[in-house]
User: Fold this.
Amino acid sequence: MNTENHITQLYSELEHSSPDLSTLAARCNLLTEILVDCDSLPQTQPVCRCLAAYLDAFKNELENSMTDFRVLDETEIPPTHKQEWLLDSTEAQCDYCRALNHVLLVSHFDREMLPHLTGLLHEISHAMLADLTVVHIH
Assistant:
């Protein structure tokens, strides 16, 4: 299967279903793996557009489910509980991925930087997926 067919199938997944956070993170990670293998701007553009759709879906699903991951600081006296989010770092990682993906989509950069940008994007995406895996295990 070539990359274009694979990306078309991924787009249709978003149109026909509502994947959960773990699935969305796994898809983002897969797309960043594909990006790491790209060596030219024409190759990255369709993958980045698809990744943008998945990152937006991930961000929306994360925002919708954040209340499921609320952690109260028990050292404070009610009702002034300090609310922290178990997935704060995951949300930040998603924002970093979105920003890097945006740079890949709209910026003109030295071709020598492409592997570094896509590698960083993949590392952050992988950390985002790992965070979700840890949350679901505990």
Observations:
- The first strand starts at residue 70 and ends at 72.
- The chain is about 70% helix and 5% strand.
- The CA atoms of residues 113 and 119 lie 10 Å apart.
